[in-house]
Amino acid sequence: MVYKALILGGVTMKKILALTAIAVLLFGFAASMPAKAQTTTTVTNLIEMYVGSATAYVDGSSVKMEAAPLVQSGTVYVPLRFIAENMGDEVLWDDKNREITILEMTASGSEMLVNATVTLKIDSSTGTNITMLPCLGFPTPCSYPRSTATHTFVIKPSVKIVNGRTLVPLGSLATDPLWIASRSFYDKVSSRVVVPGFDPNMQTDQGYGGTITVWYSWEQGSAETAALKKAATEFEKAYKTASVNLVAVDPASLKSKFIATASTGNGPHILIGPSEWIGELADLGLINPIEISHAVDTTNYMLIGPYTSNVPENFAEFVLRANYLDVAINAVSYNGKVYALPESVNTDALYYNKSFVKTLPTSLNDLLTANKKYPVSGGSPLVFDASSFYHESWLHFGLGGGVFSGANYKDVSPIKSLSSVKAFQALADLRKNKVTPSTLPTYQTAANLFSSKKAAFFIGGPEKYAVLKKTLGTNLGLMEIPSGKPMVSVEAVMIAKNVPSNMRTAFEFAKFLTGVTSFGGGFNAEVNMAKTASHIPAALKPYNDSNLLDDPMVKVFSVQATKGTLLPCAPATSAVMSVMSKILPNVYQGKITAQDAANQAYQQITSQIGK
Length: 611
Hints:
- The chain has 611 residues and is of the alpha+beta class.
- It has 3 domains: 6-196, 2-Layer Sandwich (Copper Amine Oxidase, Chain A, domain 1), CATH 3.30.457.10; 210-340 and 491-549, D-Maltodextrin-Binding Protein, domain 2 (3-Layer(aba) Sandwich), CATH 3.40.190.10; 349-485 and 571-609, Periplasmic binding protein-like II (D-Maltodextrin-Binding Protein, domain 2).
- It is built from 19 helices and 29 strands.
- β6 and β7 form a beta hairpin.
- The chain starts with 10 loop residues before the first strand and ends with a helix.
- Residues 1-43, 135-141, 173-180 and 300-309 have low confidence and may be disordered.
């Protein structure tokens, strides 16, 4: 029997006269109906909605809703009809009794069979589930009565009507074991509601073994390397016949060395590196897209559509989006395919010293004029590495500047737009107005100035949190950059294409390392990485771990990442970063005008990538 996440769908107050159908269901008469246009027989079923937004995504395509999800008293409410109908189900409204009935439909020949019904009453604390048991010869059409099983379940809080639309509390029906609603969840990092019509859980298969080689470039003796070694040790404990060979490679040569060796099949199974490498490595044919059969167990995936075992080509993306932050999956996607499992998200946020900052900034302008409100004797209100486009991007994109024209990574005309010129000018004005130091600081210099109380604000990444906390103690504050849109990149776990052996073991380790699977004893590799090495998890599972629930670093940087500007994994990105690193210092120091900077950036980047 097929069960889908129909009971969390959205309903309007439109009255549907289908009481005859309800009677047929309730009293066990012929449980079949003519096929209707809005009912589909092959539903991949990944619905994503965002609290406060009327735009939803159904299997990756945007759709407008009549009601947006909302949060009241800590409970997430979702629109009923929208989800139910996008799961291929019927929604009936009984105005007299203020009652909703949902019919779970599946196709059989030319007929639509009703597998089950769910009845919900407005403001009631209980609901009823009537399951139609299969008839002999199922799934051939049933032309005679089918027996039923009735189950009453608790709804807490109750179903409610808000602004004329019926909303149900997410997870309220999860106590009913028959329904897939228990698989739906609220991604509190992105304020995203995820409703999968399939089991999104990443399976572990500890039957794989052999030696896999992992290349990485994290500093020896660092907390990152220690956490990676811990993950490898725990993996080997669970996979009794597996061995993980960790090989540290110099950061400056990691990519070039991989390119040189991977084409011969002599490179590693796994490459850990920045997501912006993905486009180049994919174009060279050196890394594999994620195969869904390697990421999850597809043997039971008939749930994606009634009575079919066909797995859609893009099903991997749907499963992965249900397990990771959407920004993380977007970061490792190239030409419509997912090429890596994201380990952590990287971005900048706003550190502040509470001894200088009594009132938090609420806009970008508060930072641009910080010399007026947040003076620092013998120092500067704000410090950051303005020579790096990555660390300056909060300003460029926050003021509306751009780089690429949509997904056309050959067209960088947005970098010479009026908004981009405005951003270049704002950078120059920061130094001119003594908001930032007269001498352009490096990233480390900026962090040192802040930790030595020579600045009120510092824009930097999560890797600085531990040392700044140790130095400033309770005076250290951390918040999102108000209206800023810093770049977001991902530390990606890429699978080499030409290594012939132990590929499944490599995928098992990739899943484990990124935190979507755990082993006995409660060890989660990504939770450990976050706590010991300040990595911000890309997977959703670690955010429900008690060790991370109240971690201010994880809270701020994860949310900032969802509001930032994704660094594309297209090969052209490297040209952008290289050119901007040469132009930005000249802008900061007043050596070129904002307009000249925009023109030079456009010309030099276009010359490098070709148009």
